[in-house]
C-alpha cells in the first residue's frame, strides 16, 4: 500500500513526549515583566510582582485578649477563690492608666492601659461597689496580646508569583499595605483558522462549521489570568496567516486553532517556521497529537489542532503554562477529585491519554465513568463531562476499579 | 462566682448545629429571579436561568469523517488488497456528485457529495492516473458522520442553574445558540461594623483596627458570583445600624461583620430582631460560634462575627449558600485535595471544627499540617494556610495519619 501524497498523509514521523514538549516551550517563554500598582479592592486574583513584607505590627499595640479588667499582675499575687485581691474599679477611658491597686475595665481588643501588664477575665472577678474582687493570681502578660504577636513589622509575607486571594487582601490591609505591585495580564492573541469556518451568527452551509474553538480558548485565556484578543477567522492562505501573525506580534502569546497537522491545508507550522522557528510538531498525546509549538521573535506560538476536543486538551497542556509563564504567574494544579473508575481506560504505551469522565456519587462512593466516545471532534463529550483522567506514557491503560485523579480543567485557576 | 453583666457574659444558651442553621437559612432565601440575555462571549461563569436545547444538528450535514474518497459502498463490494475496486477519480468540488463507479476526493469534515454513502481512507487507496484503486470493501455509512450524530436538534443540553464553562460556550455556539438567558448576579450589601474600626488608609491608634473583614467578604462575594456593595464602616450604635440595614433593603442579601455575639456592644441581632426576625443566634462550630442569621422583609441577613477567622468560616458556611440560592445558582463543592494528617486535630463532640492546614508533598505523599494556632483572630493563619479540614459533630477529633479532605475555600466557585 502506498500513499497518494507526500507530506500530508505521511503523518508524524516522531511525536514528542508531553513533558519534553512542555520543556521546549518553557525555554521559549520569557515573563513579560510589565507590572502595575493595584489597590487591594482590585487585586483579588492578581499575581504579585514583588515580595511583600508587613509595614506594621499586628497588633500594633498591646491589647486585651479578653473582656475583663486590666491590672498589674503583682497586685493579684496570692489571690484565690477564697481570698480575692481587692482593687479599685475604674471604667475604661482613653487616657486610663492603671496604678498600684487599680483595675480598669477593658474589652477584647482594647488597648492595654498604661501601667497594666495583665488582664483578668470578667468571669474571674466580682464587682462590689467601687471595688472589684479578683479571684485568681495572674502572671505578667496574662491575656495580653503583645505588639507584633500575630505579624511583625518587616516580616516577609508573600513571594512574587503568589496569586492573591480574598483573605490575603484582608491580611495585607491589616499590616498596613494598601496597594500592591502586580503583573499585568499577559496579552494573548487567539486566531481561529480554517476555510470551513464561518463567524458566529452566520448559518453554516454543508461543509461549513461555525467557529467555536477561538471562543472556548479565549474564555480559557481569561480564566487563566490573561487578556484575550479574540480575532476573526483567517482562511487557509499563507499570506493571510502570515499577516494575522504579524498583526499580533506585540502579544505575549500567539495562539492559532486549526491547520496544525501535516495535511495540505495545514499551513500554520510552515508559516511559523518561515517567520521564526517550530520547536515541536506532533506530541505523543491522545486525542490531539497534531499540535505544534513555535516561537517568533521571542513570542511563543501555540498552534492548536482544529478538532474541538484536541484543541482543548492542548490548550490546557501548553497554552495555559505558556500564558502563566509569560505573565510571571505560577502554574497551579487543577482542582481535582479522587474517584473509582467504573470502566477500563485503554491507552497506547508511549502516549499520554486524556479521558473525559463523568463523576457521580454511587452508594457513598465517588465514581468516574469514562465518556463513551473516542472521537476528538465530539465537543459535546467535553461539555457534558466533569473532568479528565490522565493515563501516563508508561501505562497501557487504567483498570476498572482503580482510584484515579479527576482533574477539573474548566475550573480556575 | 457571679457575672458583672446580665446578657453580655451569659454566652449562648444553645448553639444550633451547622446543618440546621443552614436549613433555617435555606427556608428564608428566595431566588431573586431577575434574568438577562447574555451573548456567549460574555457568558462564561454565568448561571443559566432556562433550559437550553440544541437549535440545530451537529453535524448539520453528512460529513466525511476521514481524509479520502467518497464512494458508493456497493462499488467496493468484494474489493481487497489483492483485488482492488477501480473507480474514476475526481477532485473535490462544491457541486460534486458521486455516480456509479466514481470516487470524489474529500477531507475530514467535508460535506459528503450527493450519491456517496461511504468514505474510503486515503491510506487504503492508490491513485493511478485518473483512476483510484480501492483496496478494501466498505459498508454503507463507513467513515461518514451522519446529521445529528453528535447532537440532535431539539436535544436537551443544560438545566437552569448550570454554571457555564468555556467548553459549554463552544458547544452552545455549535448548536446554533448565540445568546443565553442567565440570572443577574445577586446584589450583596457588605456592611462592616464596630466602633474600633477605621477605614483603609487611616493609621489606627491604639485600640483601633483597620477594617479588613468587609474587604475580604466583598471579594468572596464577587468570586461566588455576586455583586458586592462594600459599604463604609458603621459604628456600634443602634440607630446607625438600623439606617445602614434600611439603606440596603433592596439588596438580595445583607451581610454585616462584627457585633454578632451577645456582648454589650453586639447590637446587630437586636436591631435585626426589631426590623424582622433572628432565625439562629449562635452555631455549634469552632472557631466562630457567635454568628447570627436572620431575615428582614424576605431579605436574608447574615451577621458574621468580627474575628477575622470566625468571619471567614461563617461567610463560607452561610453567606456563600445564601448568595447562591438568591442568585438561582447551585452550590458546588469546593475544590479539594486528599491528604494525610501530620498531627491530631482535636474537636469537641457536638461541635463542627474547622482547622486550617498547610498542604505539601513529602516523599511522594500529600500531607496536611494543621496550622499552629487556635485563635479566631489570627488572620495570618488563614492567609498562610492552603485549606480547611472539617471535623464533624459526631467526632472528637481526627487522629494523626488519617486521610482527610482539604477544602480550598479560596478558590472558585
UniProtKB/TrEMBL annotation, chains A, B:
It comes from the Archaea. It holds the Pfam family MoeA_C. Keywords: Molybdenum cofactor biosynthesis. CDD domains: MoeA. Pathway: Cofactor biosynthesis; molybdopterin biosynthesis. Residues 189-325 form the MoaB/Mog domain. GO terms for biological process: Mo-molybdopterin cofactor biosynthetic process. InterPro entries: MoaB/Mog-like_dom_sf, MoaB/Mog_dom, MoeA-like, MoeA_C_domain_IV, MoeA_C_domain_IV_sf, MoeA_linker/N, MoeA_linker/N_sf. This is Gephyrin-like molybdotransferase Glp. It comes from Halospeciosus flavus.
